[in-house]
Target: Nicotinamide-nucleotide adenylyltransferase, NadR type
Amino acid sequence: MLKVVVIGPESTGKSTLSEQLAAHYQTIWVPEYARQYLEELPRSYEQHDLLTIAEGQLALEDKLATQANGLLICDTDLHVIKVWSEHKYGTCDPRILEHMAARHYDLYLLTYIDIPWEEDPQREYPAPRMREYFYNIYRNLIAGSGVPWVEIKGGFEERRALAITAVDKLLETRNS
Model:
């Protein structure tokens, strides 16, 4: 099973791109579990919720992987939870880090901050400076992960084309 993660700051088109890639490759994509969890949470989230979100994300990924055609598109991974936890609370639950170390992904698609911010009650940092701050953190994390990655930027069609080219290259590498 090849796993591609679409990662990046808030409001950079990750879900849209994940859905487009899944449609293009006629496979399954894993939505961001945190969205569903936070929509159903009757209070503001707290640090302990992040472990629940992380484990929910992994369970959803495992469940949907059984329906994929050998390629699974993931709209986020636990790097995002690590970044949020460290930014908001100054630390990350070691169990989240253990889960991260146990997972393998084959390609990261890092979405850039060059599309307009869209307001959403779950989004917290619309300021351009903060979007850039988070982009740089994600870039540094995935650049140090040892997993191939591609920056995805431009308009929606350009982003889609860049992502398809990157996934096609991954599939060619696997098949050669």
Q: What stands out?
A: The domain at 2-175 is CATH 3.40.50.300 (Rossmann fold). The mean pLDDT is 95. The two ends are 16 Å apart (CA to CA). The chain has one domain: 2-175.
